[in-house]
Structures are given as structure tokens and as C-alpha cells.
Amino acid sequence: MTDINKFLSDVEKIQKHDRQNNGGKSNYDRVKGDLRRLFERNAAAVGELADSVFEYWENEYIYRSADLAWEPNEDNRNRLAAYLAFLENSDEYQELISDDDWNELGRLVNFEAEDLDVDVLQNLMKILVSKGAY
């Protein structure tokens, strides 16, 4: 199992645990803190950039959903995993990242660049250039 698959499994466990403790009903507001901490822990090498990427995902995909009770749905879980893979310099799930997402990820990387390790920044920039974000 890759780190990304473990991450997805952990996301599903968080949601399952929430449903089990709440009569089978899910609620994004109850799980969002755990999801954010899980994402940030898995992307610790990029520091505050992880929080910015999570916030972008949440605002762009979760809060625009018609029904927050079912979020994150499978597509949105996979998209978050794709963002994590990008932050970890992996190409898993990158086909799920849209051109608009790449542009926003590029903007976020630029904003956080001075706080990133040089090697991490170079790896992120290579991916962003290859995806046409710059």
C-alpha cells in the first residue's frame, strides 16, 4: 500500500467512525478538523503550504457541494489525495487535478515559497512547470 492509499484509507476511517458515532449520518463539519490534521501531518514537509492547499480544496470542492452530509465524496477524497501526492512529489492521481487547480497550486506555492525547503520547492516547481501552471 502506498502512502497515498494509506491516506485515503485513513480518510475513509474518519468518515466511517463519524457515521458509527452519529446514527449512520455523516457530517462534514464534524470530520473536517480530523481531515485537516491528517492532511497536514502527511504533508508536514511543506509546512503551511499544506494548510493552504487543504483550504483551497475545501472551498473549491467541499463547500460548493449540494450536500455536505456526504462530503468528502469519493471524487473529492481522491482529489485531496492527488494534492497530497503533488506535495510529496508523486504523480499518483494527478490526472484528477484540473488546469485551474494547477494554476491555483502554483499560486499557493509562490506565496509560501520563502518558507519551503529549497529541494522541496524545486520539486514542486518542476511539477508545476510540467503541468503548465507557470
The count of strands amounts to 0
Radius of gyration: 15 Å
Counting DSSP H or I runs of 4 or more residues, the number of helices is 6
Largest sheet: none
Q: What separation lies between the terminal Cα atoms?
A: 33 Å
Strand content: under 5%
Overall mean pLDDT stands at 94
Described by the principal axes of the CA atoms, the overall outline is elongated
Q: What is the share of helical residues?
A: 55-70%
Written as H for each helix and E for each strand, in order along the chain, the element string is HHHHHH
Low-confidence stretches are none
Structural class: mainly alpha
What does this structure look like?
The protein is an all-alpha fold. Helices cover 66% and strands 0% of the residues. It has six helices and no strands. The protein has helices spanning 3-20, 28-42, 48-62, 74-87, 99-112, 118-130. It is elongated, with a radius of gyration of 15 Å. The model has no long low-confidence stretch (mean pLDDT 94).
